[in-house]
Write a structure and sequence with these properties.
The protein contains 8 helices and 27 strands. The chain is mainly β. The protein folds into 3 domains: 221 residues, Ubiquitin-like (UB roll) (Roll), CATH 3.10.20.310; 73 residues, Roll (Ubiquitin-like (UB roll)); 266 residues, Porin, CATH 2.40.160. The longest helix is centred in the N-terminal third of the chain and has 17 residues. The radius of gyration is 31 Å and the shape is globular. The protein starts with a strand and ends with a strand.
Length: 623
């Protein structure tokens, strides 16, 4: 007899159903609507009685859409012909959607039609009786054959806690049940059970307002990794790929190490496809070989870009990358950019993977940069050497040494600077920087959810530096979906510079400035903070900024934004005077393109003196 272990939560059910989605028959009648089949367009679709889901949510489930005059003639959206058969299928899709969301007793009446014979259009009103939602009354896990798995799953249930996709007291949803099944399978796989199966049984209680869920779990044998077979690689040697594999033959099987290995190998930057798959046998062998499939990317890739912004004017970018540079897993890339802010930006990056340690990238980057900022103009040439590593799927870290020669060609007139500092227009900087970044915002170029956090710390003063100082920058961003079509984006940034020289001088190109397209948008670029007598930015050693945006998604094919910024720059180190913060407010539009959103922002200073409105046009979100 097979051993069985039960993990109980809640009380018993009364009768069973064999699937996640429990469907009931839907009878739809369309008596008296046949007249609308010939030549009528759908003007509008309205919903009534939908207390749980918005009309936009329900409209997304339908193939037919209502289009008003503006959508048809201005937005040029497709106008749908009324089709009774398609409407029947749409209503059935709405019923399936509601049932999958736990409303098993939903009823949808035949649509009410409003005809306009002059325009040959029809409006639909769909009346919904959602009924009572079905809630989870009881959860049970039945573990077969392997008694050692029951404590493992009990501990996993405790660790999940309120974060479990499916829990007692919550509305039953098909998607939540699928997520819970996936979580159980992943946990068993990570614990050494790649052959595990997880099935389910539902018991719906009268009067169909609660459900008991039983998970039937067969763990299978506990396994270990077998050999990894690499195929598909031609240019990159197998031993180079093998160095990035996160497991060895003979280790206890852990499914998460397959994902880690895939990420590590892909980060070599040499492949377009990387997959790691376990080779599971019908006899459920305890040693599981791994099939590693590789597809190498083209050796040479060139990218070109152009754009326009009100701050940097026309800008053009060219980048050429060569994979397998000097053979092996090395890669080289040449980067060139021109804009009014950076008339010349040239760099060459040489990357050696797995040096000096596995999973590290050694990067050598010589460069030449000419900057024309509102407060200064400089020529910077030098090189930096970096050790970089992806610390996890979300975390990235780097350590960088930079040696740079700077020629200051013009700068704002700072009356507080010493004569020596004023005359020092050619100097060296030797610095060491540490940076760590955590990125969960998705999608990357136009985030709708998640966050971004970055810390960068720099010490400059190593020989042959002319000036000694430290510089710290913390940048934190968050993206929260308030509802399906509305995102609250927020940003907080703080900067700190401290000089260790007697004259407390900090090079002008390292000082903080505020104001502009990606800063406090009620001010022109770099003009918020200390200024010289002619109104040119001097920069400062202390920075504090914050921004908030309400971003609507795809309203009239664009995304309106309401924005509010605050911030300032102070010359003294460690000075953050909240009563001296400046504020601006405004609105903007984002239009989606393949290279990111085109952005127009209009902002004006508030709570202070009456200053001109600022217009900002660029590509990409402000943050």
């Amino acid at each position: 007899m097979r051993a069985r272990r039960r993990l109980l939560k809640g009380s018993r059910g009364t009768h069973s159903r064999p699937s996640f989605a429990i469907h009931f028959a839907l009878l739809l009648t369309f008596a008296g609507t046949a007249w609308a089949q010939e030549g009528y367009k759908i003007r509008s679709i309205a919903f009534q009685g939908n207390a749980t889901f918005s009309s936009d949510d329900l409209a997304e489930k339908m193939t037919q859409k209502g289009r008003g005059w503006f959508a048809e003639h201005i937005q040029r959206q497709e106008v749908y012909d009324y089709d009774e058969e398609l409407l029947r299928k749409d209503l059935e899709a709405l019923v399936r959607f509601y049932q999958a969301e736990g409303f098993l007793n939903v009823r949808i009446e035949p649509p009410r039609l409003e005809r306009d014979d002059a325009d040959r259009t029809v409006g639909l009103r769909i009346v919904i009786d959602e009924g009572r939602a079905v809630f989870v009354r009881r959860l049970e896990q039945v573990v077969e054959a392997d008694s050692t798995v029951a404590p493992l799953l009990r501990k996993f249930a405790i660790e999940q806690g309120s974060e479990a996709p499916l829990e007692v007291g919550a509305r039953f949803r098909d998607e939540a049940a699928r997520q819970q099944r996936r979580a159980l399978l992943d946990h068993l796989s990570e614990s050494g059970y790649p052959y595990a199966t997880v099935e389910h049984r539902l018991q719906v209680t009268a009067p169909r307002d609660s459900v008991d869920v039983t998970w039937r779990i067969a763990a299978g044998p506990r396994c270990e990794f077998g050999p990894a077979t690499i195929r598909g690689n031609e240019r990159i040697a197998s031993h180079v790929i093998a160095r990035r594999i996160a497991f060895e033959a003979g280790e206890r099987y852990d499914g998460s190490k397959l994902a880690d290995s895939q990420r590590y190998v892909y980060s070599l930057g040499q492949f377009s496809v990387v997959s790691f798959k376990p080779v599971l046998s019908e006899d459920r062998a305890a040693v599981v070989p791994i099939d590693v499939k590789i597809q190498e990317a083209p050796r040479t890739k060139a990218t070109f870009g152009a754009g326009y912004g009100m701050e940097d004017k026309f800008r053009g970018v060219v980048e050429v990358e060569r994979l397998g540079f000097l053979n092996g897993a090395r890669r080289a890339s040449l980067y060139a950019k021109h804009s009014s802010l950076e008339p010349i930006n040239l760099s060459l990056s040489l990357v050696q993977s797995d040096f000096p340690l596995t999973k590290f990238d050694f990067v050598l980057r010589p460069y030449y940069l000419r900057q024309d900022e509102p407060g200064y103009s400089v020529d910077r040439n030098g090189a930096n050497v970096s050790l970089e590593r992806n610390l996890s799927t979300l975390l990235y870290g780097s350590l960088t040494y930079t040696l740079e020669n700077v020629e200051l060609t013009s700068a704002a007139d700072d009356p507080t600077e010493t004569t020596a500092a004023e005359e020092d227009s050619l100097y060296d900087k030797s610095s060491l920087s540490f940076a760590i970044t955590r990125q969960t915002g998705q999608p990357i170029f136009d985030p709708l959810r998640g966050s971004f956090h970055a810390l960068r710390a720099t010490y400059s003063g190593l020989p042959p530096s002319r000036y000694e100082y430290i510089k710290l920058i913390w940048d934190s961003r968050r993206y929260d979906a308030i509802r399906r079509d509305l995102v609250l984006a927020s940003r907080f940034k703080v900067g700190y510079i401290e000089s260790f020289d007697d004259d407390a001088f900090v090079p002008v190109e390292e000082r903080f400035t505020s104001g502009g397209s990606n800063s406090v948008r009620g001010w022109e670029r770099s003009t918020l903070g200390p200024l010289d007598p002619a109104g040119k930015p001097l920069g400062g050693n202390s920075l504090l900024e914050g921004s908030f945006e309400l971003r609507w998604q795809e309203f009239w094919n664009a995304s309106p934004v309401v924005l509010f910024d605050l911030g300032n720059v102070w010359e003294p180190t460690g000075t953050y005077k909240l009563d001296e913060l400046e504020y601006s407010a405004g609105f903007g539009l984002r239009y989606p393109t393949v290279i990111g959103p085109v952005r127009l922002d209009v902002a004006k200073p508030v709570f202070g003196e009456d200053l001109p409105t600022q217009w900002h046009f660029s590509i990409g979100q402000a943050f």
